[in-house]
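Entries read chain and fold; for instance:
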Amino acid sequence: MYPGFLKFIERGMFMINEQRLKNLEIPDHRVDVVLDTDAYNEIDDQFAISYLLRSQDKLNTVALYAAPFHNSRSDGPCDGMKKSYDEILKLLSLAGEEKPVFEGSENYLSDEKTPVDSPAARDLARRAEEYCPENPLYVVAIGAITNVASAILLNPKVAQNTVVVWLGGHALHYHDTREFNMFQDVAAARIVFSCGVPFIQLPCMGVVSSFTISKPELEYWFEGKNPLADYLAKNAISAAEKYASGKPWTRVIWDVTAVAWLLDDKGRFMRSRLIKAPVPTYDNLYEEDPNGSYMRYVYYINRDELMHDLVKKIAGE
Protein backbone atom coordinates (compact mmCIF):
# COMPACT_ATOMS: atom_id res chain seq x y z
CA MET A 1 0.00 0.00 0.00
CA TYR A 2 1.24 3.49 -0.84
CA PRO A 3 2.81 5.00 2.35
CA GLY A 4 0.70 8.15 2.16
CA PHE A 5 -2.56 6.21 1.90
CA LEU A 6 -3.27 6.37 5.63
CA LYS A 7 -2.63 10.10 5.65
CA PHE A 8 -5.62 10.63 3.38
CA ILE A 9 -7.81 8.35 5.49
CA GLU A 10 -6.80 10.11 8.70
CA ARG A 11 -7.74 13.46 7.20
CA GLY A 12 -11.08 12.13 5.98
CA MET A 13 -10.14 12.83 2.40
CA PHE A 14 -11.64 9.77 0.70
CA MET A 15 -14.86 10.17 -1.24
CA ILE A 16 -17.60 7.58 -1.15
CA ASN A 17 -17.32 4.91 -3.82
CA GLU A 18 -20.52 5.97 -5.58
CA GLN A 19 -19.09 9.44 -6.21
CA ARG A 20 -15.76 8.02 -7.32
CA LEU A 21 -17.43 5.82 -9.93
CA LYS A 22 -19.45 8.78 -11.16
CA ASN A 23 -16.29 10.85 -11.52
CA LEU A 24 -14.73 8.08 -13.58
CA GLU A 25 -17.41 8.53 -16.22
CA ILE A 26 -17.05 10.93 -19.14
CA PRO A 27 -18.60 14.26 -18.13
CA ASP A 28 -21.89 15.04 -19.83
CA HIS A 29 -21.58 18.82 -19.47
CA ARG A 30 -18.99 21.56 -19.95
CA VAL A 31 -16.17 21.22 -17.44
CA ASP A 32 -13.12 23.17 -16.28
CA VAL A 33 -9.79 21.72 -17.37
CA VAL A 34 -6.11 22.32 -16.65
CA LEU A 35 -3.50 20.82 -18.98
CA ASP A 36 -0.09 19.69 -17.70
CA THR A 37 2.28 19.30 -20.65
CA ASP A 38 5.94 18.87 -21.61
CA ALA A 39 5.06 20.73 -24.79
CA TYR A 40 8.57 21.05 -26.24
CA ASN A 41 9.47 17.39 -25.80
CA GLU A 42 7.69 16.13 -28.92
CA ILE A 43 5.34 17.19 -31.70
CA ASP A 44 2.21 15.56 -30.24
CA ASP A 45 1.71 17.86 -27.24
CA GLN A 46 1.10 20.70 -29.67
CA PHE A 47 -1.74 18.77 -31.29
CA ALA A 48 -3.24 18.05 -27.85
CA ILE A 49 -3.04 21.70 -26.76
CA SER A 50 -4.64 22.81 -30.02
CA TYR A 51 -7.39 20.20 -29.77
CA LEU A 52 -8.17 21.34 -26.23
CA LEU A 53 -8.32 25.00 -27.22
CA ARG A 54 -10.60 24.18 -30.15
CA SER A 55 -13.02 22.20 -27.94
CA GLN A 56 -14.24 25.07 -25.78
CA ASP A 57 -17.87 24.15 -26.29
CA LYS A 58 -17.28 21.34 -23.78
CA LEU A 59 -13.87 22.02 -22.22
CA ASN A 60 -13.14 25.30 -20.46
CA THR A 61 -9.36 25.61 -20.23
CA VAL A 62 -8.58 27.50 -17.02
CA ALA A 63 -4.78 27.03 -16.90
CA LEU A 64 -1.83 25.31 -18.54
CA TYR A 65 1.22 23.95 -16.70
CA ALA A 66 4.69 23.31 -18.08
CA ALA A 67 6.01 19.87 -17.12
CA PRO A 68 9.68 18.90 -16.82
CA PHE A 69 11.41 16.57 -19.26
CA HIS A 70 14.95 15.51 -20.10
CA ASN A 71 16.05 14.08 -23.42
CA SER A 72 18.02 15.23 -26.46
CA ARG A 73 15.81 18.31 -26.70
CA SER A 74 16.71 19.63 -23.25
CA ASP A 75 19.73 19.99 -20.97
CA GLY A 76 17.77 18.69 -17.99
CA PRO A 77 14.26 18.68 -16.48
CA CYS A 78 14.39 22.40 -15.63
CA ASP A 79 15.47 23.36 -19.15
CA GLY A 80 12.81 21.07 -20.60
CA MET A 81 10.14 22.67 -18.43
CA LYS A 82 11.16 26.21 -19.43
CA LYS A 83 11.22 25.30 -23.12
CA SER A 84 7.78 23.75 -22.70
CA TYR A 85 6.54 26.94 -21.04
CA ASP A 86 7.70 28.95 -24.07
CA GLU A 87 6.13 26.42 -26.46
CA ILE A 88 2.77 26.69 -24.67
CA LEU A 89 2.86 30.47 -25.12
CA LYS A 90 3.71 30.00 -28.80
CA LEU A 91 0.73 27.69 -29.32
CA LEU A 92 -1.60 30.09 -27.53
CA SER A 93 -0.44 32.91 -29.78
CA LEU A 94 -0.95 30.87 -32.95
CA ALA A 95 -4.42 29.89 -31.71
CA GLY A 96 -5.28 33.50 -30.82
CA GLU A 97 -5.96 32.53 -27.20
CA GLU A 98 -4.96 33.93 -23.82
CA LYS A 99 -4.84 31.54 -20.86
CA PRO A 100 -2.94 31.49 -17.56
CA VAL A 101 0.32 29.56 -17.97
CA PHE A 102 2.50 28.44 -15.05
CA GLU A 103 6.06 27.15 -14.90
CA GLY A 104 6.27 23.70 -13.35
CA SER A 105 8.77 21.57 -11.51
CA GLU A 106 12.47 22.09 -12.12
CA ASN A 107 13.29 18.57 -10.87
CA TYR A 108 11.56 15.25 -10.32
CA LEU A 109 10.40 13.98 -6.92
CA SER A 110 13.22 12.79 -4.68
CA ASP A 111 10.83 10.49 -2.78
CA GLU A 112 7.11 9.87 -2.30
CA LYS A 113 6.67 12.32 0.57
CA THR A 114 8.39 15.50 -0.59
CA PRO A 115 6.71 17.74 -3.19
CA VAL A 116 8.65 19.75 -5.75
CA ASP A 117 7.50 23.32 -5.20
CA SER A 118 6.61 25.26 -8.34
CA PRO A 119 4.10 27.86 -9.53
CA ALA A 120 2.17 25.08 -11.32
CA ALA A 121 1.95 22.81 -8.28
CA ARG A 122 0.92 25.72 -6.06
CA ASP A 123 -1.72 26.85 -8.55
CA LEU A 124 -3.26 23.38 -8.74
CA ALA A 125 -3.14 23.01 -4.95
CA ARG A 126 -4.91 26.36 -4.59
CA ARG A 127 -7.30 25.94 -7.52
CA ALA A 128 -8.56 22.59 -6.23
CA GLU A 129 -10.07 24.41 -3.24
CA GLU A 130 -12.60 25.98 -5.61
CA TYR A 131 -14.04 22.59 -6.57
CA CYS A 132 -15.59 19.57 -4.87
CA PRO A 133 -16.17 15.87 -5.65
CA GLU A 134 -19.60 16.71 -7.09
CA ASN A 135 -18.07 19.41 -9.32
CA PRO A 136 -14.44 18.41 -9.93
CA LEU A 137 -11.64 20.11 -11.82
CA TYR A 138 -10.31 17.90 -14.64
CA VAL A 139 -6.53 17.61 -14.84
CA VAL A 140 -5.25 16.36 -18.18
CA ALA A 141 -1.58 15.38 -17.88
CA ILE A 142 0.56 14.45 -20.88
CA GLY A 143 4.06 14.51 -19.43
CA ALA A 144 5.91 13.40 -16.33
CA ILE A 145 3.29 13.76 -13.61
CA THR A 146 5.54 15.60 -11.15
CA ASN A 147 3.45 18.78 -10.96
CA VAL A 148 0.26 16.87 -10.20
CA ALA A 149 1.81 14.62 -7.57
CA SER A 150 3.43 17.64 -5.92
CA ALA A 151 0.09 19.43 -5.77
CA ILE A 152 -1.47 16.37 -4.10
CA LEU A 153 1.29 16.37 -1.49
CA LEU A 154 0.90 20.12 -0.95
CA ASN A 155 -2.88 19.85 -0.56
CA PRO A 156 -4.59 16.43 -0.18
CA LYS A 157 -7.87 18.04 -1.30
CA VAL A 158 -6.50 17.81 -4.83
CA ALA A 159 -7.17 14.06 -4.58
CA GLN A 160 -10.78 14.78 -3.64
CA ASN A 161 -11.69 17.68 -5.87
CA THR A 162 -10.09 16.73 -9.20
CA VAL A 163 -10.19 13.99 -11.79
CA VAL A 164 -6.78 13.14 -13.29
CA VAL A 165 -6.52 11.94 -16.89
CA TRP A 166 -2.95 10.82 -17.61
CA LEU A 167 -1.25 9.58 -20.72
CA GLY A 168 1.56 7.53 -19.23
CA GLY A 169 2.94 4.06 -18.74
CA HIS A 170 2.38 1.18 -21.14
CA ALA A 171 -0.47 -1.28 -21.48
CA LEU A 172 -0.95 -3.85 -18.73
CA HIS A 173 -0.09 -6.61 -21.20
CA TYR A 174 3.12 -4.89 -22.34
CA HIS A 175 6.43 -6.29 -21.12
CA ASP A 176 7.35 -3.26 -18.98
CA THR A 177 6.22 0.21 -17.88
CA ARG A 178 9.32 2.03 -19.09
CA GLU A 179 7.48 4.77 -20.93
CA PHE A 180 8.92 8.30 -21.11
CA ASN A 181 6.30 10.02 -18.94
CA MET A 182 6.39 7.18 -16.41
CA PHE A 183 10.07 6.40 -15.98
CA GLN A 184 11.15 10.03 -15.58
CA ASP A 185 9.34 10.22 -12.23
CA VAL A 186 8.15 6.86 -10.95
CA ALA A 187 7.67 8.30 -7.45
CA ALA A 188 5.15 10.82 -8.80
CA ALA A 189 3.32 8.11 -10.74
CA ARG A 190 3.09 5.93 -7.62
CA ILE A 191 1.51 8.79 -5.70
CA VAL A 192 -1.12 9.48 -8.34
CA PHE A 193 -2.02 5.82 -8.85
CA SER A 194 -2.32 5.22 -5.10
CA CYS A 195 -3.67 8.38 -3.50
CA GLY A 196 -7.33 7.75 -4.32
CA VAL A 197 -7.86 10.54 -6.86
CA PRO A 198 -10.36 9.52 -9.57
CA PHE A 199 -7.87 8.47 -12.21
CA ILE A 200 -8.02 7.60 -15.91
CA GLN A 201 -4.96 6.07 -17.57
CA LEU A 202 -4.28 6.10 -21.30
CA PRO A 203 -1.36 3.66 -21.73
CA CYS A 204 1.10 4.34 -24.53
CA MET A 205 2.51 1.20 -26.18
CA GLY A 206 -0.24 -1.29 -26.81
CA VAL A 207 -3.13 1.18 -26.68
CA VAL A 208 -2.78 4.83 -27.77
CA SER A 209 0.23 3.92 -29.92
CA SER A 210 -2.38 3.27 -32.62
CA PHE A 211 -3.08 7.01 -32.91
CA THR A 212 -0.63 8.00 -35.65
CA ILE A 213 -0.54 10.41 -38.58
CA SER A 214 1.38 10.32 -41.86
CA LYS A 215 3.06 12.95 -44.01
CA PRO A 216 0.39 12.84 -46.76
CA GLU A 217 -2.34 13.31 -44.16
CA LEU A 218 -0.54 16.26 -42.59
CA GLU A 219 -0.02 17.87 -45.99
CA TYR A 220 -3.59 17.26 -47.16
CA TRP A 221 -5.56 17.99 -44.01
CA PHE A 222 -3.47 20.58 -42.15
CA GLU A 223 -0.98 22.46 -44.33
CA GLY A 224 -2.11 25.94 -45.32
CA LYS A 225 -5.49 25.74 -43.55
CA ASN A 226 -4.71 28.34 -40.89
CA PRO A 227 -1.58 29.46 -38.97
CA LEU A 228 -2.10 26.94 -36.17
CA ALA A 229 -2.80 23.95 -38.44
CA ASP A 230 0.08 24.93 -40.71
CA TYR A 231 2.52 25.07 -37.78
CA LEU A 232 1.41 21.66 -36.51
CA ALA A 233 1.90 20.07 -39.93
CA LYS A 234 5.27 21.61 -40.69
CA ASN A 235 6.59 20.95 -37.19
CA ALA A 236 5.60 17.28 -37.35
CA ILE A 237 6.93 16.78 -40.88
CA SER A 238 10.22 18.48 -40.05
CA ALA A 239 10.74 16.28 -36.99
CA ALA A 240 10.00 13.07 -38.90
CA GLU A 241 12.04 13.95 -41.97
CA LYS A 242 15.15 14.27 -39.80
CA TYR A 243 15.20 10.52 -39.23
CA ALA A 244 13.04 9.10 -42.02
CA SER A 245 13.70 11.26 -45.06
CA GLY A 246 12.95 9.39 -48.26
CA LYS A 247 11.02 6.61 -46.51
CA PRO A 248 7.35 6.22 -45.59
CA TRP A 249 6.66 7.15 -41.99
CA THR A 250 3.95 7.79 -39.44
CA ARG A 251 4.27 9.67 -36.16
CA VAL A 252 2.31 9.04 -32.99
CA ILE A 253 0.32 12.03 -31.82
CA TRP A 254 -1.05 10.05 -28.91
CA ASP A 255 -1.23 12.98 -26.47
CA VAL A 256 -4.42 13.98 -28.29
CA THR A 257 -6.16 10.95 -26.82
CA ALA A 258 -5.96 12.29 -23.25
CA VAL A 259 -7.99 15.34 -24.24
CA ALA A 260 -10.27 13.16 -26.35
CA TRP A 261 -11.29 11.08 -23.35
CA LEU A 262 -13.22 14.08 -22.03
CA LEU A 263 -14.94 14.47 -25.40
CA ASP A 264 -15.87 10.85 -26.01
CA ASP A 265 -19.52 10.01 -26.62
CA LYS A 266 -20.74 6.45 -26.20
CA GLY A 267 -17.42 4.95 -27.22
CA ARG A 268 -17.02 6.97 -30.40
CA PHE A 269 -13.32 7.61 -29.81
CA MET A 270 -12.21 4.87 -27.40
CA ARG A 271 -13.11 2.00 -25.10
CA SER A 272 -12.26 1.72 -21.42
CA ARG A 273 -13.01 -0.37 -18.35
CA LEU A 274 -12.84 -0.08 -14.58
CA ILE A 275 -9.98 -1.86 -12.84
CA LYS A 276 -8.37 -1.81 -9.41
CA ALA A 277 -5.47 0.61 -9.64
CA PRO A 278 -2.10 -1.14 -9.73
CA VAL A 279 1.07 0.54 -8.44
CA PRO A 280 4.03 1.23 -10.76
CA THR A 281 7.23 -0.24 -9.36
CA TYR A 282 10.74 1.13 -9.51
CA ASP A 283 11.82 -1.84 -11.62
CA ASN A 284 9.44 -0.88 -14.46
CA LEU A 285 6.51 -3.18 -13.74
CA TYR A 286 2.98 -2.93 -12.34
CA GLU A 287 2.24 -4.39 -8.92
CA GLU A 288 -1.26 -5.41 -7.90
CA ASP A 289 -2.70 -3.53 -4.93
CA PRO A 290 -5.66 -5.32 -3.30
CA ASN A 291 -6.48 -2.08 -1.45
CA GLY A 292 -6.32 0.05 -4.57
CA SER A 293 -9.19 2.29 -5.61
CA TYR A 294 -11.04 1.80 -8.85
CA MET A 295 -9.61 3.65 -11.83
CA ARG A 296 -10.53 3.73 -15.51
CA TYR A 297 -8.21 2.02 -17.97
CA VAL A 298 -8.42 2.88 -21.68
CA TYR A 299 -7.72 -0.17 -23.84
CA TYR A 300 -8.77 0.78 -27.39
CA ILE A 301 -8.67 3.87 -29.64
CA ASN A 302 -10.93 4.35 -32.67
CA ARG A 303 -8.23 6.08 -34.67
CA ASP A 304 -10.23 7.25 -37.69
CA GLU A 305 -13.16 8.71 -35.73
CA LEU A 306 -10.83 10.65 -33.45
CA MET A 307 -8.68 11.84 -36.36
CA HIS A 308 -11.78 13.13 -38.12
CA ASP A 309 -12.73 15.21 -35.09
CA LEU A 310 -9.18 16.52 -34.69
CA VAL A 311 -8.99 17.64 -38.32
CA LYS A 312 -12.43 19.22 -38.19
CA LYS A 313 -11.62 21.30 -35.13
CA ILE A 314 -8.09 22.38 -35.95
CA ALA A 315 -8.14 22.64 -39.74
CA GLY A 316 -11.84 23.42 -40.15
CA GLU A 317 -12.52 20.56 -42.53
